[in-house]
Design a protein that fits this description.
heterodimer; A: 342 residues; alpha/beta; D-Maltodextrin-Binding Protein, domain 2; 2 domains; ten-stranded mixed β-sheet; 16% strand; globular; B: 517 residues; mainly alpha; MetI-like fold
Chain lengths: 342, 517
Amino acid sequence: MPHLDRRGFLKAGAWAAGSAALARPAIGGAWAAGETLTLYNGQHEKTTRALIDVFSGATGIRVNVRQGSSSQLANQLIEEGDASPADVFYSEESPPLVALANRSMLATLDDDTLKQVPPIYAAKDRTWVCASLRSRVVAYNKAMVSEGEFPASVLGFAAEAWKDRVAYVPTSGALLEQIMAIELLDGRDAALEWLKGLKAHGRLYPTNGAAMKAVEDGEIATALINNYYWFSIAQEVGDANMKSALFYYGHKDPGALISATAAGVLKSSRKQDLARRFVAFMVSEGGQQAIVDSMAEYPVRPGIESTFALKPFDELDPPAIGPADIGDAADALVLIREAGLA
Amino acid sequence: MTLALAGAGQRRPQPVWLVAAALVPVALMCLPLVYVALRSWQAGPSGIVAELLRERTLMLLLNTVALALGVTLGACLIGVAVAWCVERSDLPGRRWWRIAASLPLAMPAFVASYAWSSVHVAVQSLPGAIFVLTIVVYPLVFLPVAAALRGMDPAFEDVARSLGKGPWETFVTVVLPQAWPALGAGALLVLTHMMAEFGALSLLRVQTFTTAIFQSYELQFDSASAALQSAVLMALCLPAAWGEMRLRQRLHVARAGRGSARRLPPRPLGRMRLPALAGFALLLTLSLGVPFAMLAWWLAVGTSRGAGIADLGPAIAGSLGLALPGAVIVVALALPLAFAAVRHPGPLSRIADRLPYIVHGLPGLVVALALVFLSIRYARPLYQTAFLLFVAYAMLFLPLAQSALRASIELVPPRLEELARGLGRNPFGAFAAVTAPNIMPGVGAALALMVLEIMRELTATLMLAPIGVTTLATEVWSHGNDGQFAAAAPFAALLVLVSALPVYVFTRRSSELYDLQ
């Protein structure tokens, strides 16, 4: 008899497990019904959530998000091709969108949408539009180093004097853009030398967030990152408690590069109208306010005020290099490999 | 007739149902191999040579091997010492320590690394990584070795002692050799785990092939260098898988009957009692105390505390919704492999049994990439469904399920099945009626282990999960990425707490299994 019981137990278990396994994909299918958009999001999740909350509240349109790093998602989109479930791609940097545009994977946006931002922040072929701006900076630990010690240009960090005192993130899209800026301003050899110098003397971190945290925790004196990482930690522990500060290069140095987040609509999307509406919303007043309220970035649309104590955009004095000049940053990839960093 | 033949030869033809059932996981395991081969080939012969001869490849090779060997050695030392103390010594409260010492298994390596990396910058180094990973993975060695020590025939030790050998000599010459299969299996798991480890190493800033694969992929999707790095990684797993196989083969002969259930009296620790207790306390403080203290600290100081608390429900649902059916599927796939390897040993079943161990050394990312690549081309309707994710889990965790199952299958005498066959059952009927009910402890242990592993899986889940599905692990990752440590803390704590249940079940099941002996 106990034998029979055990067999019965086995059978019941098998049924339960089998039906649970079948139920799971079925639930997934049911979620996809109704008016929904699918967004591939490389921007920080916090910002995108804030944006979507306002958008969905106003329109009733649901937005499903696939979260990942921007270049990862761009590559996934390339792999998916026409089969992609994505309608909109929101990237933390412009090069991944340029890469998609170069493969003719993006639909053209409405002129009305493009007109909302200064021309330098919209694609000439109208396939993407920038959503927010950020400045490259040097984050430094106030107890470990003072601004007076910094080299005249960000290029000076790739030197013996900064051995184990500068953090860099080779997988960061913004660093790729900075490499492109150096190549455009000072030539290929300067960019390659810089990378080799960073490899020899700097300390490699896996993410910008980790590099910023390392500076704040006093693990390393400086980090080459974007401005908003400092504000993210400051928001978490309070401005007054911050042990680190930001240094802005200005004087058109590649260390003062402005990089942009950007978005575009996939050509393969079967919801072109909805997708366009979402991108239009991103550069509208409501969308821009939601973005700059959640993250210490600069608005791409004039007349929006950030709630963060940002250094005024007019005082940044960046080099005259825009997303179009940086392109898909393929050169930077070659340089990174050549320097042995990847 | 059947009985006599089987008893004499041990080589019986494999039943058709078993071959068919074992072919499914074998075919699945070949998918990432095909993908890696296809992508590598894109580089062309000269490209392959150039990539392999880069200075960077050598650096990655040295780091990967040093880390994998260092952690494996450390885990073996700690695992064996802890196992001996809780099974063979008179350590006070050893029943309690037995459970407690297995709990670090519930601590995901990336959570422990996150905490440790902020304790001191010195931990962010190769020695630091070896330290942190050793204290969280040693249960993979401790559990099988403890089980083996418990099941051991004490007569051998009596003989050794009566021949005048000291306790230490007895341990090395008599006890340890009997524990080799358990130790070898545990060590192989740790070794391949370390080859594939990503999250922890990224946080501790150690560059291995796996972190390099992530980096290559971060920069370029169809990266031939990522594929070549994956190929090297699998090649590194080959000698380990082969060595463990040899160990097991030789021991099959050496194993004497496990007839007597007599237990050895626990060996008194004497003066070592206090140091041993202190060692246990220290081990648990390092592996569990420090990470939990760090989570508590983040909760205390962070202003993002409570952010995303509404996502806790969906994340738990996502974790369990993937882990429970996933565990059942993986164990179902592992069963025929383990069964064939035990009952029908031969070159084919041995390769089928070992193949998953080689793939186990691949990071979740490569498995996910292979599935994206193949499903988009050949199985579009499956793309971004939970089904594909279950397939990925099977590829990643099959060997763990196999190990847990094998021990319990070995305990079922083949005679029982033959009896059922003799009474007119077909081969599958015999398996279902006789074998299956008898291996329940092993199945339970395997299920618990799978639930545990799937719940903490991050990279394949991120890439393959149906859109909108979040898990506790993905939430920890995304909040941590945004610098919201306090927001990440409840998800991390819950992940550890929820994981403690399968760890407990796994430990209990495993010990029940050996108590049957």
